[in-house]
Write a structure and sequence with these properties.
mainly alpha, 14 helices, MetI-like fold, single chain, globular
């Protein structure tokens, strides 16, 4: 247990260090972009004196490290200031209003990925090249080959226009009606989940069949274990290690905001907010969202590493 806690502690420290370096890189990149917040607020027709006064007020004339320390302090304390492109709205309020939407969409998508993969993998592994394996292998190639935005448009046409399961574009907020909110999100969640589930199934299928050819599985057969018993008792733990790594990458992509799907289904989430912030040249908002996306990716991969370390003691060593 002590060794496991040490492994988790090292992974968390590594994740925090990576996030600190990413925040520094993001801030440095935005300070080198031509133009600044003062020019975005005043416009290109502002005089030099007006820009200089506003730059002094915003602290843009201080040294790089002073600006970074001030920005990082505001980021950690949650006092993120006001947006430039959203009528001066609070950045914290903008993010907190849209974050639950992205988290719910990502959570539903991840549940769909796990359910689809969990239902099809046991059928595919009965025997390599079996009819069930060939059918599943063929079906998973279809969603992988289609872009996410096309699947979203296809879902809108089939489920929204033809079958009237939902009204395209008629988003219902979680504050108004939570059940209707989840019902609306189920279709974009499925559109996001299908390609990711197909990739996970193909990845796990290859990993599982590779493990079935190992010597310890033949030993398990010699002891009277059936294929499914050998799979659940011996193969699954070893084959799950690369699958968990891929699942961590999928979760990182989902929780950082599905920008394309949010645009297609008119969902006011983090991804759509980021696109609007970039279009409005809202540097403070985009900086904050870039750090959030980096944090989601780093945290998801760190959790995947910890889970792998708990499953396989060799990783901890």
């Amino acid at each position: 247990m002590r060794y496991g806690l040490g492994f988790i502690g090292r992974r968390l420290c590594g994740a925090l260090l990576t996030l600190a370096l990413v925040s520094l890189a993001v801030f440095a990149a935005f300070t080198r972009i031509p133009g600044d917040s003062a020019m975005a607020l005043r416009g290109i027709e502002a005089s030099g004196e007006q820009l200089a006064a506003l730059q002094e007020e915003l602290g843009l004339r201080r040294s790089f490290w002073e600006q970074y320390r001030s920005w990082l302090g505001k980021l950690l304390s949650g006092r993120l200031g006001n947006s430039i492109g959203f009528q001066g709205a609070s950045i914290s309020a903008l993010i907190l209003d849209r974050l639950p939407v992205t988290l719910c969409l990502a959570g539903l998508s991840l549940v769909c990925v796990l359910l689809i993969a969990g239902a099809l993998i046991p059928l595919a592994i009965q025997k390599e090249g079996s009819p069930a394996d060939r059918i599943i292998n063929t079906l998973t190639a279809f969603p992988i080959s289609l872009p996410a935005f096309f699947l979203g448009i296809l879902f809108i046409w089939v489920f929204g226009i033809l079958f009237k399961c939902f009204t395209p574009g008629a988003y219902v907020g979680y504050q108004e009606d939570f059940s209707a909110f989840l019902a609306y999100l189920s279709f974009p969640a499925l559109a996001v989940a299908l390609p990711n589930a197909a990739i996970l199934i193909k990845f796990l299928r290859a990993s599982i069949f590779k493990e079935f050819s190992a010597g310890y599985v033949r030993t398990a057969y010699s002891k009277g274990n059936s294929r499914f018993r050998a799979f659940y008792r011996h193969v699954l733990k070893n084959a799950a290690v690369p699958g968990i790594t891929l699942l961590g990458m999928i979760a990182a992509e989902l929780f950082s905001g599905s920008m394309v799907i949010e645009q297609v289904f008119a969902i006011p989430g983090i991804g759509r907010l980021l696109i609007a912030g970039v279009a409005a040249r809202d540097y403070p908002l985009v900086e904050t969202l870039a750090v959030y996306i980096a944090a989601a990716v780093i945290l998801a991969n760190a959790l995947a590493d910890m889970l792998i370390g708990l499953i396989d003691p060799r990783i901890r060593r």
